[in-house]
């Protein structure tokens, strides 16, 4: 364990084996190449949320979640060349996250065009920019638990 002083969260104990290296940095912050993830325990959100915090800047952190909580049919179509630097060998080693944005009046959105791809085995990550419709740039998230569950059940039934 290493001690990390976050300007946002104070002193944290981080397992260095649980950090991810981003060889190309993240969009807008190319000099930030090492990140760790903190799980948020909050029953107000209808799905799990994490904080992706930079080791390189003690005041840089993003709220993230697995995009399947927002859009159950979400998938990433990336070429092997795009993922080459994070050395993915098996799809079971992949985790996907998207950055969440909290706006005025409790509105939350996410950008499904720019996912974060994680190689959970080798602890490598990449922030991609995919092609897709503009509607996926600023997807509004329904924060009502009952609506979220209803939408998830409805999407599962449509996929059958």
What can you tell me about this protein's structure?
The structure is a single chain. Helix content is 12%, strand content 34%. It is globular and about 40 Å long. It is built from 2 helices and 11 strands; from the N terminus they run E-E-E-E-E-E-H-E-E-E-E-E-H. It is mostly beta strands. Strands 3, 4, 5, 6, 7, 8, 9, 10 and 11 form a 9-stranded antiparallel beta sheet that branches. The protein has a single domain (2-159), classed as BH3618-like (Roll). The relative contact order is 0.17.
Question: In brief, what are we looking at here?
Answer:
This protein has helices spanning 80-83, 145-159; strands at residues 2-6, 10-14, 19-21, 34-40, 49-54, 61-65, 94-102, 108-110, 116-119, 124-127, 139-141. By secondary structure, it is mostly beta strands. It starts with a strand and ends with a helix.
Which key terms come to mind for this protein?
single chain; 160 residues; mainly beta; BH3618-like; 9-stranded antiparallel β-sheet; two-stranded antiparallel sheet; 11 strands; 12% helix; 34% strand; disordered C terminus
Domains, number: 1
Query: Which fold name fills CATH's third level, the topology?
Result: BH3618-like
Order of helices and strands: EEEEEEHEEEEEH
CATH homolog superfamily: BH3618-like
**Average pLDDT number:** 86
In whole angstroms, how far apart are the ends? 45 Å
Shape: globular
Helix percentage range: 10-25%
């Amino acid at each position: 364990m290493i001690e990390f002083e976050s300007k946002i969260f104070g002193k944290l104990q981080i397992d260095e084996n649980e950090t991810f290296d981003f060889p190309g940095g993240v969009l807008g912050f190319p000099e930030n190449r090492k990140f760790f993830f903190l799980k948020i325990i909050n029953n107000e959100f209808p799905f799990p949320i994490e904080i992706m915090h930079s080791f390189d800047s003690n005041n840089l952190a993003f709220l993230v979640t697995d995009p399947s909580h927002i859009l159950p049919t979400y998938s990433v179509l990336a070429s092997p060349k795009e993922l080459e630097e994070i050395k993915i060998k098996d799809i079971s080693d992949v985790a996907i996250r998207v950055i969440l944005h909290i706006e005025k009046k409790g509105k939350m959105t996410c950008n499904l065009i720019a996912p974060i791809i994680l190689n959970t085995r080798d602890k490598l990550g990449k922030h991609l920019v995919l092609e897709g419709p503009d509607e996926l740039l600023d997807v509004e998230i329904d924060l009502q638990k009952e609506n979220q569950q209803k939408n998830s059940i409805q999407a599962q039934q449509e996929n059958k």
